[in-house]
Amino acid sequence: MTITHNLGFPRIGVQRELKKALEAYWSGTRTAQDLEGTGRDLRARHWKLQAASGLDFVPVGDFAWYDHVLEWTTLLGAVPARFAQSDHEDVALDTLFRMARGRAPTGTPAAACEMTKWFDTNYHYLVPELVPNQTYRIARRYLFDQIEEAQALGYRAKPVIPGPLTWLWLGKGDAFPHGPNDPAKLELLNNLVPVYRQVLEQIKALGVEWVQIDEPILGLDLSPAWRAAFKGVYDELEHAGIPILLATYFEHLQDNVDVLDGLPVQGVHIDLVRAPNQLNDVLAVISDEQVLSLGVIDGRNVWRTDLDKARALVETLAVRRGDRLWLAPSCSLLHVPVDLDAENELDAELRGWLSFATQKLDELAWLADSLSLAPSVATQDALQRQRLALKARQDSGRIRNSVTQKALAASNSLDRNRTPFVQRIRRQQDKLGLPAYPTTTIGSFPQTPEIRVSRRDWKSGALSDSAYQTAMRKEIEHVIRFQERIGLDVLVHGEAERNDMVEYFGELLGGFAFTQSGWVQSYGSRCVKPPIIYGDIARPAPMTVAWSAYAQSLTEKPVKGMLTGPVTILQWSFVRDDQPREETCRQLALALRQEVIDLEAAGIAVIQIDEPAFREGLPLRRADWNRYLDWAVDCFRLSTSGVREETQIHTHMCYSEFNDIIEAIAAMDADVITIETSRSNMELLAAFEDFQYPNDIGPGVYDIHSPNVPDIQWMIALMQKAAKRLQPQRLWVNPDCGLKTRGWAETEAALVKMVGAARALRYT
User: Fold this and answer.
1) Per the database record, which ranges form the Cobalamin-independent methionine synthase MetE C-terminal/archaeal domain (predicted)?
2) 46 in a labelled binding site
């Protein structure tokens, strides 16, 4: 009999219960006991749901208060010294929160840990901080407590933990300057692996049958030293005496498949959605006695699975391997919404094409039952419904748009080139008249409860169009007057009318659909509701021009037009899977090109096209990079190259590594790029310095993901550090990211200091 299991489940709750509980605790309106109660309720609910779907094992340890990597870092006791963690006491929950966001209800605020993207997803993890000779110990018991919690409820628990090599790979430290592949990090295994073994021994003592150890770095380009390290590590872990399922996902193993040959683990999970052609390579190196877990249900997108195709892929193995064949989603379901049944207003035809986390587990159960000698009538009916839904999507007339197809065919003739930067920057400076170290923000200002109520009432029909426009104009004027008062140089309109930087545009473009409760965790309590791109993209009317033009009419200072770039809209949506992603991206680029041209015609002299997901879209294997970068850069330039040379184009990127793609970033040819650097202490600027990046750059000096207000001297010091790396005349002063999630009091205090820092720099 084929075994079914799951690699992980969304932790936020279908109505974002975890988000609400966290923010209430951080604000002081709920107690730690209240928060813990919410966590228990969510875990119990999600285990029950997964068990009811027929899973043989439910994952435990996939729940996290902020991030699963951070949870594991604190279990290992790898707490940076600035958080004053005792070597003899358990790591408190508030210490975890201070590591994540710089502040918690108790404890002294400190600089938060660096945050970056989890492989090529829009999920952010907290980067482990590594130091030479680092020691480890079991410093939190959350995993063991949750195992006992699940067992007490009657579930077969399969603990899920980050693998030791993946955890080290993700970590950073000043003593390890050569990036993730730095072989010096492997020396930390001497202290790290024994603690892993202790964890496994304690898990075994609880009566657990299997433990899942995630090693997704096996989908990356690993050096020989890193590949060789797997054997020694898992030789040691084998002595814990508990069966290990080694889980890989997101990419083909390629040259790392040899790592599995003779590796002392009892099972291996591979992702057959991203890389179906790796199956034979893996079968060639694992034994018949080892469990083979196949990820055949897409854990990263929302389309229904072609179960007939999946069955054809696995049925021969099911006969041969029996209960040594496991079936699962391709990766953790963390990356998709919880339950399609919460969508009672979604278009009925489109709804029939979709599958969220709960439904994916149903698909898994149907697939497993279809492999049996006598599939149930319910399974046969479900498979037929699946076939009809897939056929309906394929035949639907709403997917293709003839106007879009014609524009796409003609797009090759559109010029992607602007005049040289040295020429156009002089024209821009003549027009804008900016001082040295010009100041700006990234775009959004705090989304107050009043703004959200106005938007909610307008969408429900309780507020008229004219009343809503009046309310938003009032907010825009407030933001403009505030920026004038504190002395910012290039202003923004604040984006009060926008619910989300991607969803807002999707609502105004053809080819998109939206959910009510399709929330996905981005980091901590930050959740997003990705749009669904189901068809060709069209721009029926201007999307931002009226708001930007109104803001510009209120001031003599330049106001940036604010757009989300084509790559980011693509990456932060659930994208159609019936055509190449680059074709969808070019459709987006054409729509944005029209918007950019209309903004310029409306008198907007500075236009920002944000691309925070540019690096996120980078394939995990270097051999695939050039093809992606070619079309991603082309789409950005297609969006921006239709304006005059005196119109200044900005872009923004955050929480990404740039050193290995700096040439592509330069090829985008934005006049100004703003980046996150405050958490990483200007570390990212090394890439721009080494490359001699030719255009203007704004290294962020205010970490907006922390409630802490930075000191003015801290910001000055960061910019002085930047000025030693880059030409001062090329530098801007700005926050790391948009201010949407911050409150007004901290925003005002921080920006006043930021402007003060810029003024001090001008006179030193």
Assistant:
1) 438-759
2) no
